[in-house]
Design a protein that fits this description.
Blueprint: E1 2-9, H1 13-24, E2 29-32, E3 44-47, E4 50-53, H2 66-73, E5 79-80, E6 93-96, H3 105-127, H4 135-146, H5 150-168, E7 190-191, H6 197-204, E8 208-210, E9 215-221, E10 224-229, E11 232-241, H7 245-248, E12 254-256, H8 263-268, E13 270-272, E14 275-281, E15 293-296, E16 306-309, H9 311-314, E17 318-324, H10 326-330, H11 336-351, E18 360-363, E19 377-379, H12 387-390, E20 399-401, H13 414-429
Parallel strand pairs: 1-2, 1-11, 2-8, 6-15, 9-12, 11-20
Antiparallel strand pairs: 3-4, 5-7, 9-10, 10-11, 13-19, 14-17, 14-18, 15-16, 16-17
Helix pairs in contact: 1-6, 1-13, 3-4, 3-5, 4-5
The structure holds flavin-adenine dinucleotide.
Length: 442
């Protein structure tokens, strides 16, 4: 059996970060990856001359974010696109009212101010909410206290529901009241014209990565661990497991002995979400110019309400929208054509006959991906924010969990993946490591 200092399960950003830092420190490291590619939930598709991020696209705020330093150090080109965190009005957004009319600048501004005011009351409600309350409970309680006129309240309510759906891929009723506590963006958001996938490619350089190795069992004791997959077993003094929550909960991935508390309790409180991207490439741009996004209010926007203009990024007229939460569940078995037609129908409510037939449609399917089983994890009602970091509690000095769900400050992001991998490497080496060395050679 091959033996290593450390084995890392999963070649996503968390695993590659941990493996790179350990290898740079002189450890013998093996990375086992189930898929036939690296990057995990950062996955850039290059096809027909187009670059498409099927997984993550945004850094949600670059100020004080080590991920921003790391992508800079690797020389990755980024462009500002500060609309990826379901902002109401920090950048130009074309709002369309329930009847399909474009809102004036004053009306859009007033709506943005309503959201700002509501948010501060909502934060106070959540701060004193009883454990087990959902985000929807907190929204309703806040609306009742504010007693706003019916249509004003309706616009704010639907925005908050859509925020839970777009940010966490889950209906507000199924998300813990604290599920969006991390939802603040420090500084600009950026995206990557050459794709977020470049990050994994840089992190992977010089590492021993075995693709198509589906790990089924991690056997651990205070003396070390054995990691089993179809190709056989590998042993190491330390193991870092970075598979998504969906895999940990699937029954296809076994720990022997079973994970102890507090990890099991923490895992139980998270679920993988329902969240898909829909890219539509058109021959001509028929929508508003100089806006970051287009938003439909009211019943017409129940499923498809927000479109993001990627034209400048892709160099061709392109809109991105999301099937998020209930709409992702409902459309899960639909063909791409069926989904596109449903989205176009919603766009016709705004632009009528101007709507063109798309030349190309791409719909992701993370819900049915056997190695993620969803896009990212969310907190079910009753789970606690600190459960994220509890997941990373080292077990017997041998076993470490890392990955987006294990980082409490900004979970569900690439930043969280990077930071969690960095923490696992620090825990193993027993010393602090700077992020900037990640771009050094191994
Ligand atoms: C559609 C979508 C949009 C997103 N948008 C953004 C965004 O704009 N900004 C942002 O910051 N974040 C975004 N995210 C979230 C972000 O992509 C993730 O939080 C991050 O990439 C997770 O990294 P990770 O290393 O924790 O997990 P992963 O990237 O999932 O890495 C885990 C690895 O483990 C492998 N694996 C699974 N099971 C096994 C097994 N049994 N044996 C061996 N290997 C296994 C997987 O194949 C995978 O490569 C998005 C995600 C999706 C899907």
């Amino acid at each position: 059996m091959e033996t290593f200092d450390a084995i890392v399960v999963g070649a996503g950003v968390a695993g590659l970060t941990a493996a790179r830092l350990l290898a740079q420190a002189g450890q013998g490291v093996l990375v086992l990856e189930a898929r036939d590619r690296i990057g995990g939930r950062t996955w850039t598709e290059h096809a027909d001359g187009f670059t498409t991020d099927r997984g993550a696209s945004w850094i949600h705020g670059i100020d004080g974010n080590p991920l921003a330093q790391v992508v800079d150090a690797f020389g990755m080109r980024s462009v500002e696109f500060t609309v990826g965190s379901y902002q109401s009005h920090s950048r130009p957004i074309a709002y369309y009212g329930p009847a399909g009319e474009r809102l004036s600048e004053e009306a859009s501004h007033a709506f943005g101010e309503d959201i700002r005011e509501f948010d501060s009351h909502l934060a106070a409600t959540i701060g004193v909410s009883v454990p087990g309350s959902s985000y929807a409970d907190a929204i309703e309680e806040t609306l009742t206290a504010l007693d706003w006129e019916a249509s004003r309240a309706a616009r704010v309510r639907e925005f908050m529901y859509h925020r839970a759906e777009e940010q966490y891929g889950v209906s507000a009723g199924n998300l813990d009241a604290h599920g969006l506590d991390d939802d603040s963006v420090e500084g600009d958001e950026v995206v990557f014209p050459e794709g977020f996938g470049e990050l994994a490619a840089h992190l992977a350089k010089g590492l021993d990565i075995r693709l198509d190795h589906v790990v089924t069992r991690v056997q651990w004791s205070p003396d070390g661990a054995r990691v089993m997959c179809g190709q056989g077993g590998f042993s190491a003094a330390k193991v870092i497991v970075t598979v998504p929550i969906g895999i940990l909960k699937s029954g296809d991935f076994e720990f022997s002995p079973a994970l102890p508390e507090p990890l099991t309790d923490a895992i139980a409180g998270f679920e993988m979400n329902n969240f898909e991207k829909v890219f539509l490439r058109f021959p001509r741009k028929f929508w508003d110019h100089d806006v970051y996004a287009i938003r439909q209010q009211g019943d017409a926007g129940t499923w498809w309400h927000s479109w993001y203009d990627l034209t400048d990024l892709h160099g061709v007229p392109t809109l991105l929208t999301f099937a998020a939460g209930p709409s992702a569940l409902e459309t899960r078995g639909w063909s791409d054509g069926h989904i596109a037609e449903s989205v176009l129908q919603a766009l016709r409510g705004i632009y009528g006959e101007l709507v063109e037939t798309p030349e190309h449609v791409l719909v992701t399917n993370w819900q049915d991906d056997p190695f993620s089983r969803g896009s990212y994890a969310y907190m079910t009602p009753g789970s606690r924010t600190e459960h994220h970091d509890l997941l990373a509690t080292p077990v017997a000095g041998v076993l470490h969990l890392a990955g987006e769900a294990t980082w409490g400050e900004d979970p569900a992001t690439v930043t969280a993946a990077l930071r969690s991998g960095h923490r696992a490497a620090q825990n193993i080496l027993g010393r602090e490591l700077p992020f900037k060395t990640l771009s050094d050679r191994i």
